[in-house]
Amino acid sequence: MSAALAIALAVQMQGMDHPGHMPGMTMPAAKPAATAQARPKPATRATARPKPSASAKRRPKRAVPSPAVAACSPEHAAMGHCEAPMPPASADACPPEHAAMGHCTPPVAPPPAAACSPEHAAMGHCKPAPAGTALPAGDGPAPAAPSPTYADRIWGAAAMAPARAQLRREHGGATFSQVMLNIAEWQPRRGADGYRWDGEAWFGGDIDRLVVKSEGDGRFGARASGEVQALYSRAVGPYFNLQGGVRQEIGTDRRYAVAGIEGLAPYWFDVEATAFLSDRGDVLARVEGYYDQRITQRLIVQPRAELNLSAQDVPRDRIGAGLVDAELGVRLRYELRREFAPYIGVSWERAFGETRRLRARDDGGVALAVGLRGWF
Amino acid sequence: MTRISDTAASPRRRDILRAGGVLAAGACLPAWAQSGTPGIAPLPTVSGEDIRLRIAHRMLTIDGRASHAVGVNGTVPAPLIRLREGQNVRLHVENALDEQSSIHWHGLLVPFHMDGVPGVSFPGIAPRSTFTYEFPVRQSGTYWYHSHSGLQEQLGLYGPIVIDPAGTDPIVSAREHVIVLSDHSPLHPHVIFRKLKQQGGYFNFQKQTLAGLLAGRDQREAERLAWGGMRMDPADVADVTASTYAYLVNGHGPRDNWTGLFVPGERVRLRIVNASAMTTFNLRIPGLAMTVVQADGLPVRAVTVDEIQVAVAETYDVIVEPRDDRAYALVGESVDRSGMALATLAPRAGMRAAAPPLRPRPLATMKDMGMGGMAATATATTGGHDMPGHKMAGQDGGGQDAAGQDGGAEDAAGQDMGTMSHSMRDFANAPELKRTPTIQTIAPMPVDRTGEPGQGLLDVGHRVLTYRDLVATARNPDTRAPDRSLRIHLTGNMERYMWAFDGEKLNEVTAPFAFLAGERVRVTLVNDTMMGHPIHLHGHFFELVTGHGDFAPRKHTVQVQPGGTVTFDVTTDAVGDWAFHCHMLYHMHAGMMQVVTVRPRDAVPA
Ligand SMILES: [Cu+2]
Question: Closest Cα of chain A to B109: distance in Å?
Answer without folding.
Answer: 6
